[in-house]
Structure formats: structure tokens, C-alpha cells
Design a protein that fits this description.
The protein has about 290 residues and is α+β, with helices and mostly antiparallel strands. It is built from nine helices and twelve strands. A hairpin with a 5-residue loop joins strand 5 and strand 6. It is globular, with a radius of gyration of 21 Å.
């Protein structure tokens, strides 16, 4: 079974052209919602097809301009919206683990600047066996990193950073654990911890053999500039909640409660979940859209 996700190149520009700049980010919600994704690929056998629409002759081009002056296309037409090319690839993988990944592409070329992210994703995905992957939780495992282990082949792991910031990661293993970098197919000297620099939406596949629980801990340091931007976004949501409450808008209390929950996650340094909700939380944005003036 294949999930056919329709997303458009340069989505924010298209919304602006259509006068819908504050439209709920549905394509983000589709890429982040495991309940939806697992309808198709959660059993390790389904497939995921990324399809981006052609936007060159967009019908709502600005009046009085040349036909192609307000298009949403760039050098390569069929690539995912958003700042980073690997966004949808990495998020779909860590949240659904499809056995097949297809990418529709015609009448265009891929910009060379986008190739490294796709290459890194492909190295990780090809190295991992199909199956069910469980996200690891617990003491010592930073929530600002996706660390998953294959249920059927427990020596296979992946570490993913499915967010728009750089992450400096240290993975710590039990003594005697044999660690293999599956991208380079070579052993890792991980006695003092394996240090990884994961770019935005970066991913690393590896094997760890030895003992029941080879991976003991992971430590994550996020780019400070990204944290400041996320903090500004959260503060803007808090101000909006205050304005809605002061105006007596129906439903404002529920929205304020959700924003307060985000502040609680922030205080716990769970920046990843705050980012997920603000960038594409379906229920959050559905409520916000009803209330925002």
C-alpha cells in the first residue's frame, strides 16, 4: 500500500499569492502525524510516495504581471516545500518507516545544492532493514533526538534530527559494544562516546552489538540561534493567547491551555516537541485558525 502525499514547491509563496498566508500548514501536519502515516507504512511493508506539484503556471498569478513573474518554481520543480530539502524525507522515515520510498520527478533537474541532504538520507535508509522501529525513551536519552531501534533486528539503530537546526550529538555505549557506521561501513571507536554533527533533518544509521542495552545515553546540543528563534515564536503565541483571553473570544481558554503546555515543554528543554507543534501540529493549528482574528 502506498501513501500518496501531495505537497507543493514553495508552499508559503503559493499561499501568499492566493491570499491565504495564515492557512494551516496541512502538509507539515501530514508529515508529522504518525497516526496518519502508520495507516499506510507503520508495519514496515507499506510505501511512501513523495509527490510535488508543478507550480510554474499558477492560476492566481498577480494581476497585471507577466504570466510567469509570480510562479512558485525554481531550478528544480519537484522538491518538497520548506527551508530544507530533507524535511519530508527524514520525518516520514522516523515516524512511519516505509519499506518503499518513491519520488516523482519529471521535466526538471535537481539543484546540486540539494543533493547532499538527499544523499545522506539515502545512505541511512538503504542501510536499514525493513521492520518496526521503536523510539527509545528513558533516563539519559535526550528528547531532542530521535533514536530508534529495529524490533526485528535489534542491532540496527538510527539517530535522526528531524528539525530545522544543527545538533551536536554524543552517543554513549556500554563497555564492549561494537559500533558500526552504516554510512561508511566501518567500525567506530566509541569508547569515549561517538560524536555526530547532524545538520537540519540529518540522519545517521548504525549497528550496535553487545549486551541487552548497548546504547546507554545520548546528549544533544542545539544551535543557540535556532533556540532563540523558537523562543520568539513561542512568546508570540503566548501574546496571542493573552489577547484572545482579554477579548473574551470563545475557545481562548483551550488555546491558552495548549500554549501553556508548550511553555511547560520548553521549561523541560523539550524543544523538539515545541517545534513540532508550532510548525505542524494539526489540532493546535486547527484551533488557532478558528480563533485568530
Amino acid at each position: 500500500m502506498v501513501i500518496y502525499t501531495m505537497v507543493g514547491a514553495d508552499a508559503e509563496k503559493r499561499r501568499w499569492m492566493a491570499g491565504q498566508a495564515r492557512e494551516m500548514p496541512l502538509e507539515r501536519a501530514m508529515a508529522l502525524e504518525p497516526t496518519y502515516l502508520n495507516l499506510f507504512a507503520g508495519n514496515g511493508r507499506g510505501g511512501w510516495d513523495l509527490h510535488c506539484i508543478f507550480t510554474e503556471n499558477w492560476p492566481v498569478a498577480q494581476a497585471g504581471r507577466w504570466l510567469w513573474s509570480a510562479n512558485g518554481a525554481w531550478v528544480a520543480y519537484h522538491w518538497p516545500p520548506g527551508e530544507h530539502f530533507a524535511d519530508y524525507w527524514t520525518n516520514a522515515l522516523v515516524r512511519a518507516h516505509p519499506a518503499l520510498v518513491a519520488y516523482n520527478w519529471h521535466d526538471s533537474n535537481l539543484d546540486n545544492r540539494l543533493e547532499p541532504a538527499l544523499r545522506r538520507f539515502a545512505r541511512a535508509w538503504r542501510a536499514l532493514p525493513n521492520g518496526h522501529y521503536d523510539r527509545l525513551h528513558g533516563q539519559g536519552l535526550d528528547r531532542n533526538l530521535f533514536v530508534q531501534r529495529c524490533r526485528e533486528h535489534p542491532e540496527f539503530y538510527l539517530a535522526a534530527n528531524p528539525w530545522p537546526w544543527h545538533a551536536e550529538v554524543v552517543l554513549r555505549f556500554a563497555e564492549g559494544t561494537a559500533v558500526l557506521d552504516l554510512h561508511l561501513d566501518r567500525p567506530v571507536a566509541a569508547g569515549a562516546g561517538w560524536r555526530l554533527d547532524l545538520p537540519p533533518f540529518g540522519i545517521q544509521a548504525f549497528k550496535a552489538s553487545g549486551g541487552v542495552q548497548p546504547l546507554l545515553a545520548c546528549e544533544v546540543r542545539i544551535d543557540e540561534a535556532a533556540i532563540r528563534r523558537l523562543q520568539a515564536d513561542l512568546e508570540a503565541e503566548e501574546l496571542l493567547a493573552q489577547r484572545l483571553l482579554a477579548a473574551g473570544v470563545e475557545g481562548a481558554s483551550e488555546f491558552a491551555g495548549q500554549v501553556a503546555r508548550l511553555r511547560g515543554l520548553w521549561n523541560e528543554q523539550n524543544y523538539a516537541e515545541v517545534q513540532d507543534v508550532l510548525s505542524g501540529g494539526y489540532e493546535y493549528h486547527r484551533l488557532r485558525q478558528k480563533l485568530e482574528p
